[in-house]
Write a structure and sequence with these properties.
353 residues, alpha/beta, Aldehyde Oxidoreductase, domain 3, TIM Barrel, six-stranded parallel sheet, 11 helices
Length: 353
């Protein structure tokens, strides 16, 4: 992975933070809140340098959101000196991603919040970057909304953007993308038309704006070749693509094998759909694959030359773990850190205005 060119940071207000609750310590580990209270009551001023580092390599994200916490939830944010990477930058194991310098009492209680932000956003961005790299230029669609609490969608969508995804499935996830969510025909709509995929797709076509891609879901009857041809014949040039989403425990009727490797969206299924579409003159119809895809599975498809054009990835994008730690490493300009920690300057950090 290569370092992404720096971009302009997002303004703090776009994150819609619950500022008063964060400021009060509502989301913070109690010992941080009590530390703040002690320092304030004792009128004890200590100018500290807090160093934030990652325990895993990956794609940094949540940087701008963490900065927003520091700018909006501190009494005198102009007194803080912050240096940080940019969202979307690569980061190495143990690398310093941010430093915060200021009066300890003013921001000590915020550590829980900004570390959690960095952990969540960087985990999603890192997972997305892995599948984007594996896809070798094919668009990766961010589809994990149904696998987590709805309130995380907006930030996760931004992290997916930082990781290189080409689109997302909900408007919340797409908020920072400057566009609308991507949506194909779901199984529920096909069921509402009594299992008739062609009828459901034609209804979709008749009711959606012209700029919405017509992508038909073709596994409802577990006969993806036949269904793909039926919708292609019905829509003609209006059909942008078909989506293969065969469940992992099923083998499509066109697939000859009967082993585990033949279940779900397997290479043989994709090849047969492509061959059938090409044979009837539908070579321009794209194939989108989804359902149980991971970076390893995508990579194997690419290496085997499986003819797919885009991939939708869901729950596997929420399994990555990226952890961060923050330590005071300088006090009043002099080294002061617990044993095993030390100031680790990073020339890649840039000042935050």
């Amino acid at each position: 992975m290569t370092k992404r060119k720096p971009v302009k940071r997002l303004p703090p207000g776009v994150f819609n933070l619950p500022v008063e609750k964060i400021r009060s310590g509502w989301y913070s580990d109690k010992y941080f809140v009590r530390s703040r209270d002690i320092l304030l009551r004792e009128n004890h001023s200590a100018r500290v340098l807090m160093q934030v580092f990652t325990r895993q390599g990956g794609t940094a994200c949540g940087i701008d959101e963490a900065i927003a916490v520091l700018k909006l939830c501190v009494d005198n944010p102009h007194e803080l000196e912050i240096n940080a990477l940019f969202d979307g930058d690569t980061m190495r194991e143990w690398e310093t991603v941010m430093t915060i310098e200021g009066n300890c009492a003013s921001f000590v209680h915020l550590e829980t919040v900004y570390l959690g932000i960095l952990a969540r956003r960087s985990a999603v961005a890192t997972a997305v970057r892995k599948v984007v790299d594996a896809a070798a230029g094919r668009p990766v669609l961010f589809f994990p909304a149904r696998f987590d609490h709805f309130l995380v969608q907006e930030g996760d969508g931004y992290a997916a953007l930082a990781g290189g995804a080409a689109g997302a499935s909900t408007d919340a996830q797409s908020n920072f993308w400057g566009g609308e969510a991507i949506g194909t025909v779901p199984h529920a709509l096909i069921a509402a038309y009594k299992g008739d995929t062609v009828a459901a797709t034609l209804a979709f076509d008749a009711n959606m704006p012209e700029d919405v891609k017509r992508i038909a879901l073709v596994d409802f009857e577990n006969d993806s070749v036949r269904t793909s041809l039926e919708v292609a014949r019905a829509l003609g040039k209006r059909l942008w693509g078909v989506r293969l989403d065969t469940a992992s425990g099923l083998i499509d009727v066109c697939v000859k094998g009967r082993g585990v490797e033949s279940c779900g969206v397997c290479p043989e299924l994709v090849r047969k759909v492509r061959k059938a579409l090409d044979a009837e003159g539908f070579g321009d119809v794209k194939i989108v694959v989804s359902g149980g895809f991971t970076a390893d599975k995508i990579r194997s498809f690419v290496e085997e030359g499986v003819p797919f054009d885009a991939v939708g990835v869901g729950s596997s994008l929420l399994r990555e773990k990226v952890e961060f730690t923050a330590d005071v490493v300088m006090v009043d300009g002099k080294p002061c850190a617990k044993v095993g920690r030390r100031f680790n300057p990073n020339p890649r950090l840039r000042p935050v205005e």
